[in-house]
Amino acid sequence: MPRTVMELLKTLPRTNCGACGQATCLAFATQVIKEGEDMSRCPYLTEAALALAGEIKAQQAKGLGRRRESIAIALEALQEKVAPLDLADLAEGVGASYGEMDGCPYVDLDYFGHRLRVFKDKVCYPEGVEANPWDAILLYNYLASQGKTGPTGTWITFQSLPNSVSKTKTLKRLEKELAAHFAGKQRDLERAAARLGGQPVKVAEDADLQVIFRPLPKVPVLLLFWEADTEEDFPAQVHFLFDGKVSEFLDLESLLFLVEQLADRLMAA
Ligand code: SF4
What we know:
Layout: H1 5-11, H2 25-35, H3 47-82, H4 87-90, E1 97-101, E2 104-111, E3 114-119, E4 123-124, H5 133-145, E5 155-156, H6 168-182, H7 186-195, E6 199-200, E7 209-216, E8 219-226, E9 237-243, H8 252-268
Antiparallel strand pairs: 1-2, 2-3, 3-4, 5-9, 6-7, 7-8, 8-9
Helix pairs in contact: 1-2, 2-3, 3-5, 6-8
Bound molecules: iron/sulfur cluster.
Protein name: DUF3786 domain-containing protein
GO molecular function, one term: 4 iron, 4 sulfur cluster binding
InterPro entries: 4Fe-4S_dom, DUF3786
């Protein structure tokens, strides 16, 4: 089985020191597994991480070429889609702020609590480090939606979104992984949610933990968690709900990517 981002992340120091050129250890692990980044760029590799290095290198050599090519194509296609848009016009509608640098327009967007600067040809952190292409694709999709209305405050399931049937399985897998990770550890989930800026709410009657995240300004995500009940043989459960207008801002693939990012960040926090 190929090594995953989470497997690698668990072996990293998780200090988010930035010495590898990425803002967080999670971003670095994502780059290594998905983009073929050289593991040695982290000067603080643990023995456990070094033990994985050979395996990950072989994994990178096997499958990255074609994947990189398709990501580059997707990114280019989205940049072409965004190129004719007037960023000044659409900034407010997507909850961004508009600016210009050396005559190049950009918008600043809050993404999982980090400020990202989206130019028409690149996406970077304010200090200039380029964001990984997966995040760039998501942000260009978000901008290209040119969504205008705000969140409605009503919550819907992923399954109720048009054409979601074939993708529901992916969401259920993410929910199951997250539930299994935090089963019997509700306090850990509460702490992780707080670290990610999650806001506790009371929306559903019976869920043990209910938190709203705002990974993108106009895309709130509601996490519902039911703790395991061993006496009743009831496993821990997680459900994600989305704002009634979410499809005005993200397509289904982008929404799943966003949830995957949220789940990874919670497990890494
Ligand atoms: S991966 Fe290593 S260098 Fe990068 S942020 Fe984490 S500890 Fe620091």
